[in-house]
Design goal:
This protein is of the alpha/beta class. The chain is built from 21 helices and 14 strands. 35% of the residues lie in helices and 11% in strands. The model has no long low-confidence stretch (mean pLDDT 94). The structure holds FE2/S2 (inorganic) cluster and magnesium ion.
């Protein structure tokens, strides 16, 4: 067999002694799919297509994949599409995060096991892009991330609607009795009216911007709306780029470096982006042994301004961000803070990209570094006895009048307890209390759902209370807002201090000092710890993926990845 034939289809072939026989067998089975011998000599670009009927955000992938294929063909490669599992955010129980690691394993193993020289990863919805980047980082084959792109906005009367910040805004009004049942049913049909990911700077869009900043997606492609023709051109260009990488391989490990991860954190902070993205970026970087602690996040946050005026923090939508200049415009403003010698899948240095003409930038949507929306980053890590390994507050989405306060804890011990009592008219709660939710972290039965956005109890919301301090080991949707402290580590289910809080305790928050403290003395905490028993089904009594998850998932500060997926030597 010639070297030419060894390319592509012969890649990764297991040699049982008669290698040529194995190539011949593969060729004949490939021929059964209609491929000629000539075509099989081309470099093979796999296309990981996460289309699913259970993923509304990826509805356009059947069209988009045709454009990826054309790009691969035009650059002289052979495109071969393959499916991976997909994660449609709202259709997965108990929470999509639980399956992110599963999708990353599927992606990694299929990229490695099947004969391909490079891969295009088609993702979009919240957990899909991090899953694909985690898998690609571990497989370390040349890979291009193709983002699905955001939805367009819709209308309700004079109001512009975009999933899902406006979903929450109207639901809040409905709970407060300001919107009728008829109206909320009408709004339900208008919140999400095109394919694509949520229309605001939620987790999906934040991760898209991170993928572009890391260099794993083509420059300028993160924010293109899903239904815009530029999205199809980006698909074509991504296919071409992947095929070209076969000649000049650049591996994810050359692109995702400590420097590019820091750049991505800067962009996350300047976007006022999703809290979930910290977990995801930590997990992606962790696959390559890169660890950027929450202390470093705070340093970066203190010196990185918020520049992007998008919901849920600001007032615009993703389509506005695209037309305003997108990620490129943000990177240009942040240039003095960035590492400019990072590279993208094209091989281009970030510094060289930023030399180019920025084009039109709409300053209503993307502020200048000289006149930022906020002088400091949108996210901050808090420490203290309640969160020894850290917790996250999205300060850009919070009420700053609550930043230096002390209040009485009102504790909900589980999601079930929360659901049972939150709207009880007899619930003993005031607007200046601190709501605490326990047992909603990664090892809990619920698997760390987006439950950290505890609803304001109806007895208070009906009196006009819009925000309260809420603390949990859960996550929050990237489209939500409020003074909400999340990702408390260690979580309650493994005996973190959070598990020891009782209704009536005092809790002090100081965003200035980056502290969240339970004002209970150590002797009392030790006494409570001695009495504490985990509210948890042990892994041995669970089965299948659920068992794997329960025994392997790491805490939030380690990205909620599985311990056994870390690089060898970095984790026991
Ligand atoms: Fe897919 Fe929001 S549901 S991005
Ligand atoms: Mg989301």
């Amino acid at each position: 067999m010639s070297d030419e034939q060894d390319r592509g289809l012969a890649r990764g072939l297991t040699n049982y002694g008669d290698r040529d026989f194995s190539v011949y067998l593969r060729n004949s089975f490939a021929a059964s799919m209609g491929y000629s011998r000539e075509v099989l000599k081309k470099p093979i670009v796999g296309i990981a297509n996460s289309f699913s009927g259970f993923n509304n955000c990826h509805r356009h992938f059947p069209e988009m994949v045709e454009h990826v294929k054309r790009g691969v063909l035009l650059a002289g490669g052979l495109p071969i599409e393959f499916p991976t599992i997909s994660l449609g955010e709202v259709f997965l129980s108990p929470t999509s995060l639980k399956f992110r690691n599963l999708m990353s394993m599927d992606t990694e193993e299929m990229v490695r096991a099947q004969p391909m020289d490079a891969v295009v990863l088609m993702g979009g919805c919240d957990k899909t892009v991090p899953a694909q980047l985690m898998g690609a980082a571990s497989a370390d084959l040349p890979a291009v991330q193709l983002i699905g792109g955001p939805m367009m906005t819709s209308r309700y009367g004079e109001e512009r609607l975009g999933a899902c910040t406006d979903c929450r805004r109207f639901w809040g009004k409905y709970r407060a009795g300001e919107v009728s049942t008829e109206q909320i049913n009408d709004i339900e049909g208008r919140l999400a009216t095109t394919t694509g990911t949520c229309a605001v700077m939620g987790t999906a869009s934040t991760m898209a911007c991170i993928a572009e900043t890391l260099g794993m997606a083509l420059p300028g492609t993160a924010a293109i709306p899903a239904v815009h023709a530029d999205r199809l051109r980006a698909a074509e260009a991504s296919g071409m780029a992947a095929a070209r990488m076969v000649q000049n391989p650049i591996r994810p490990s050359e692109i995702i470096t400590e420097k590019s991860v820091e750049n991505a954190l800067r962009v996350l902070l300047s976007l006022g982006g999703s809290t979930n993205a910290i977990i995801h970026l930590t997990a992606i970087a962790g696959r390559l042994g890169i660890r950027i602690g929450l202390d470093r996040l705070n340093q970066l946050s203190d010196e990185t301004p918020v520049l992007v005026n998008l919901k849920p923090v600001g007032s615009h939508y993703m389509e506005d961000f695209f037309f305003a200049g997108g990620v490129g415009a943000v990177l240009r403003e942040l240039k003095p803070l960035l590492h400019l010698d990072t590279i993208s899948v094209t091989g281009e240095r970030l510094g060289d990209r930023l030399e180019q003409d920025p084009g039109y930038v709409d300053r209503r949507v993307i502020a200048t570094a000289e006149e930022p929306l906020e002088p400091q980053g949108g996210l901050v890590a808090l420490f203290g006895n309640l969160a020894p390994r850290g917790a996250i507050l999205k300060r850009s989405a919070a009420d700053s009048s609550l930043f230096e306060t002390e209040g009485r804890a009102v504790v909900f011990t589980s999601l079930e307890d929360l659901a049972a009592r939150i709207d009880d008219p007899d619930l003993d709660i005031q607007a200046d209390d601190v709501m605490v939710l326990q047992n909603a972290g990664p090892r809990s039965a619920s698997g760390m759902p987006e439950a950290g956005y505890l609803p304001i109890p109806r007895k208070l919301s009906s009196k006009g209370v819009k925000d309260m301090i809420r603390i949990s080991d859960a996550r929050m949707s990237g489209t939500a807002f409020g003074t909400i402290i999340l990702h408390v580590a260690p979580e309650a289910a493994v005996g973190g201090t959070l598990a020891l809080v009782r209704t009536g305790d005092r809790i002090r928050l100081s965003v200035k000092d980056k502290r969240v403290e339970l004002l209970v003395d150590d002797a009392e905490l030790d006494r409570r710890r001695a009495e504490w028993t985990p509210d948890l089904v042990p892994p041995e009594e669970r089965r299948g993926y659920d068992r794997l998850y329960a025994s392997e998932v790491l805490q939030a500060d380690e990205g909620c990845d599985f311990a056994f997926l870390q690089p060898i030597g970095s984790k026991d």
